[in-house]
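Aim 2, interim progress. The first record below pairs a target sequence with its structure tokens.
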Amino acid sequence: MPAPLLAHLRRRWLSLLCMAVLVIGLPTSCAVLQHTERELLFRIEPGTASWYRGLPQDVQEFDIEPAGFKAGQSLHAWWWPAARRDAPSILYLHGVRWNLTGQAFRIEQLRAMGYSVLAIDYRGFGQSKGDLPSEASVYEDARAAWERFTVMQPDAGKRLIYGHSLGGAVAVDLAAELSAQAKKQQVAVPVRGLVIESTFTSLGDAVAVVANDNLPVNWLPVRWLLSQKFDSIDKIVDIDMPLLVVHGMADRFMPSRFSQQLFNAANEPKRLLLVPGGTHNNSMSLAGSQYRQALDALMKAPRQMAGPTQVRAAHDS
């Protein structure tokens, strides 16, 4: 199974320390250091995942080329329609390192639960064309995918956004943006709900776990040295849609307390599904029917009206 963000950061703690020292000692090298930080963060594996066994015949592959992209840039996408023509649909946003071929097993599970799935590779991943990703670029990619998603699934009541690991932070950002737009227009949010799995409160919090465990010093202000923030804990309070938070309790890379904190900070309606024995990658398969029931309940929740009268949960600091 894929080794997620914290695993490769643990293996590269010396690089992280060197980067921190350089940031402190050589402020003129910001551009180079930010590029190195992004390389360490996304750590893109070329080619196909070793466990990938090919796509079923009914999966449609195509490229998304938004007008705002530079010439030669595009997103590669998979659209796997459910057997039922009126089935609900999921926009799937993956995490770091592995492209879509490394996500096929999880996409297949969602489709087996009765959902159509639109999944993308961010620019720089897989067959998508573009430069090394950044926080800003993956947010742009998610918005471009959302525009295509609304065409593939025109019924707002049958749309879900799903993000795994770092993709959870991308999904939170997209959901917060959609909520802000709906609030401004005083209309219902154009999506049934949000699902985030095995994700974190902020990248700074995630990297701090690695730094505290592996760096020979504990005084470096790791959070402040990062140019990539992925600050979900501050954004999730602005999301006006039903939420499902999932985390494996045996996740060695991303502590489940992050999901608990996100859940505490989020608005109702919300549900936290902690999976005993679940790791970073197998909570969906391990939870089985419980996971399916949680998704079904999310689909039955009423769509939210975004506005000043919305009740907000207290921020768990």
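The second target in this work package is listed in the same format:
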Amino acid sequence: MNKVLITGNAAGAWAARLAKPQYIPTYPITPQTEVIETLELWKANGELPDSDVHQLESEHSVMSAAIAASATGSRTYTATSSQGLLLMHEMLYIASGNRLPIVMNNISRGVSAPITLWSDHNDFLGCRDTGWIMLHAKNVQEVLDFTLMAFKIAEHQDVLLPVLVNMDGYELSYTEETVDIPDQENIDSFLGVYQSDHNISPDHKLCVGAPVMAEHYSNFKIQQYKAMENSRDVIRQVFEEWYKLTGRSYGVVDFLPSPCATTCLVTQGSMSTTTRYVARKNNVATLNLPVIRPLPHKEIGAALSGFDLVGVLDRNVMPGRGGIMVQEIKSVLYNYQKMPIIESYIVGLGGIPQTEEKIKMIIDKVRNDFYYPNEIDFNDVV
């Protein structure tokens, strides 16, 4: 295992290199471009001998090519961001509906208009109903680890679904952190060789995506739903295998209690590290969400149901509804006998930094909201 100082983009590229995908379709978009530049450089230098790296004419074409490659049994990886992910959106449903284990990094960037190159989570969370498994890294080490584990999760015979691994643009994509890169032989053993039982080939002709009658369509969707449910146990198993291999432990929720705390803040992505640091100093618990789909509802409920107040920090906004994740948290806790007061805080849109001072301000507002609920606007934008 080698300890190196690399960016989040480089960590995604390293994960792809170690996984040895046969096909990597690409198209550049800020702040993702460094991922494919790194892979292209390695390919030119002969350091990606097992991978074909092809730049196509658009992100829609990238996902179309990824679908075709995966359907032939090739291990497939790509990366995108923001408007590029939106241009792929139609094809995301085709990838998951055809049960293709594609792995993709998304580097979150606010969605136009107005144009911003900085991060929020609307691009990533806009994919939550597409049938993709969705993981969200809070630091550069998690980018590497989650992307490598994504291949094993996606390719499991009880799953066979694509996986989207997210990192925050600039906060992680261009931030250098110290990362442990596993040895190639360990990853070869961990992932094995992907072998699908239902490949398209000259000797095994299949009709993919053909029109079906309504009852057959429902059967396909039931199987897809069951595969996502199967992934709950598979994710836990892969996390445990990764711990045995590397010593780094992950859970489907990342809960840090605090002694006698009555308040918990819920976060995802890079703001989780700053939030956790400030929360520790102020006797506030934190719950970071590394797994967004399948939503770990039982674990979220077990972690949050004992608090008086839960503050959900949403780095996104749904005009006309508020934050995305606060709605998910409310739905999880709705049937609990003791349901905490749940407050929504929309933060960091378009890359606004979540500093220690701002997190402390949110903690103070959460506590004031609890004691003076009629005097506070519950949908604050910070």
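The CA atoms of residues 96 and 131 lie 5 Å apart. This observation will shape the mutagenesis plan for the next reporting period.
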